[in-house]
Amino acid sequence: MLFSPYTIRDVTFKNRIVMSPMCMYACDREDGTVHNWHLIHYATRAVGQVGLIMVEATAVTPQGRISSRDLGIWDDNHIDGLRTLTTLVHEQGANIGIQLAHAGRKATVSGEIIAPSPIPFDETMRTPKEMTKEDIEETIDAFQQGARRAKEAGFDVIEIHAAHGYLINEFLSPLTNKRTDEYGGENRYRFLSEIIEAVKEVWNGPLFVRISAHDYHPDGLTVKDYVEYAKQMKAQGVDLIDVSSGAVVPAKIDAYPGYQVPFAETIRREASVPTGAVGLITSSLQAEEILRNGRADLIFIGRELLRNPYWPKTAANELGISLEAPKPYVRGW
Ligand SMILES: Cc1cc2nc3c(=O)[nH]c(=O)nc-3n(C[C@H](O)[C@H](O)[C@H](O)COP(=O)(O)O)c2cc1C
Known about the structure:
Blueprint: E1 6-8, E2 11-13, E3 17-19, H1 36-47, E4 52-59, H2 79-91, E5 95-101, E6 114-115, E7 129-130, H3 133-152, E8 157-162, H4 167-172, H5 190-202, E9 207-212, H6 223-235, E10 240-244, H7 261-271, E11 275-278, H8 284-292, E12 298-301, H9 303-307, H10 311-319
Parallel strand pairs: 3-4, 3-12, 4-5, 5-8, 6-7, 8-9, 9-10, 10-11, 11-12
Antiparallel strand pairs: 1-2
Binding site for FMN: 20-23, 57, 99, 210, 302-303
Pfam families: Oxidored_FMN
Enzyme class: oxidoreductase
């Protein structure tokens, strides 16, 4: 299963292994352009036979960066570097996606930060400005422009980052969205819904959304709420939900191998939508179990792929599968 192809729309990934989006804070200037370092980092995982490389959270506005070293997609000047990246990864036989992101109240860049409501993340962070209707419209447009640039740069997949307490997640959760207008209360899903619509106007390829399926707070959301959100995403044409959890508010999370898989499984079963599982999945047998039991459709691997860019080869060896050598031919692969 782990090494069987998977097709979404017109794109077929050669296996079910996805490099989970991971910010590397590696831009050497503050303009968000791709650096040679990114080319080496991602292309190495493509040589390592990852099926789909998901590029890290990439900011749709300068103000939406987690840090000043984040990758950006807020300007047409970003397209060339991103196109070099997609070309290199394609040459090595992998698919490549990009995670479009806005950090909201968790942005650490200088200047004003924005959020649905003026509540800081914790006592160390600044109080964000409550977004006006105009801010909301501009941000939705920034996601659309980001999607257009991603298409021009040759990406195969777009993932909207709606997890980990960043801007979209802040709209979804009642802990961070105290608005009384049409984006609050019962309508906390509206902001994400309008972003999905805007992205789909310019993008008809595979569309993923990453969610945090649990707020780990007594007044926050749980996977039950996310099943309802997932049904709406599916109805809007989202192809796969990448299921993570937490970080809307500071919380202590009991993380153990595969701890988020039950969320991916529940959403897959109850919303009838493909899911990706992520979180301390480090062994091929664990990945096979998840896929064979229909708990998720794709396996997102994070830190294990930082430690071992050739993890798919390790996994294939464990499963007794021989992989085609990367090109040009690698002796002893
Ligand atoms: C250094 C680092 C950077 C990360 N950056 C992102 C990111 O840009 N977007 C995102 O959705 N998750 C991000 N994550 C979370 C990972 O994608 C993944 O969900 C998490 O590490 C759990 O998977 P793992 O146990 O396989 O590492 C990051 C994690 C790490 C360790």
